[in-house]
Amino acid sequence: xxxxxxxSEWLVVGLFGIAFLAFGSSVYALAVTRVPVLRxxxxxxxxxxxxxxxxxxxxxxxxxxxxxRTLVALCRGARxxxxxxELSGPMWLAAWVRVLASGSAGRIRIxxxxxxxxxxxxxxxxxxxxxxxxxxxxxxxxAEEMAPGGRLVSFLWAVPDWEPDQVLLVGRLRDPVxxxxxxxxxxxxxxxxxxxERSQENDRQNxxxxxxxxxxxx
Length: 218
Ligand SMILES: C[S@@+](CC[C@H](N)C(=O)[O-])C[C@H]1O[C@@H](n2cnc3c(N)ncnc32)[C@H](O)[C@@H]1O
Known about the structure:
Blueprint: H1 7-33, H2 45-52, E1 59-63, H3 69-75, E2 81-86, H4 89-102, E3 108-112, E4 125-128, H5 135-145, E5 151-155, E6 162-163, E7 166-170, E8 175-181, E9 185-186, H6 188-207
Parallel strand pairs: 1-2, 1-4, 2-3, 4-5
Antiparallel strand pairs: 5-8, 6-9, 7-8
Bound molecules: S-adenosylmethionine.
């Protein structure tokens, strides 16, 4: 006789499957991005929003939007349009529900997608809170795709070789928010070093004796 499988067993299997998928997708996201799920502290969001001074109709992209709290808060008020990209399934779901609950689904979209594969042509601001090692690929993508005048905004971590146009210091701990206006400028210290290296190279070339042919003199 075949054992009977009732709805409660199917429910357990279904819930187990969902939990497995959620866990797997979170582990995958962490393994691929090496960026943990953290949130820009809520008490800093008004200062960041004020500092960015976005105006109605502008597009803000959150590169790795987590649970969407930051994206919704930064798009509030000025009726800014938002897009959030997130690789972790549970975080994507949480962000989607948050956007729906906030009543801003008409102007904020959430995608379960690698930010490095999205399109940025229409973005006025790309906001990110990642890790130091993730900054260069994000910066390179912004430099390649965003229109001149667009801004890359990074909470806590600077882009290694870029000079910020502005650094907001927010909250009691004066946490830095780096703002880069595109096209980005190289750091002056790097530019100075490059100039120094160029002049050393010139000096070397000027002082080197003319090349002689190799081999024993006869
Ligand atoms: C530190 S959290 C920041 C969340 C949110 N932006 C905030 O400031 O509150 C970074 C998030 O970015 C996501 N992430 C990292 N790299 C990503 C990528 N290439 N594409 C999509 N999401 C990414 C991570 O899964 C994580 O949820």
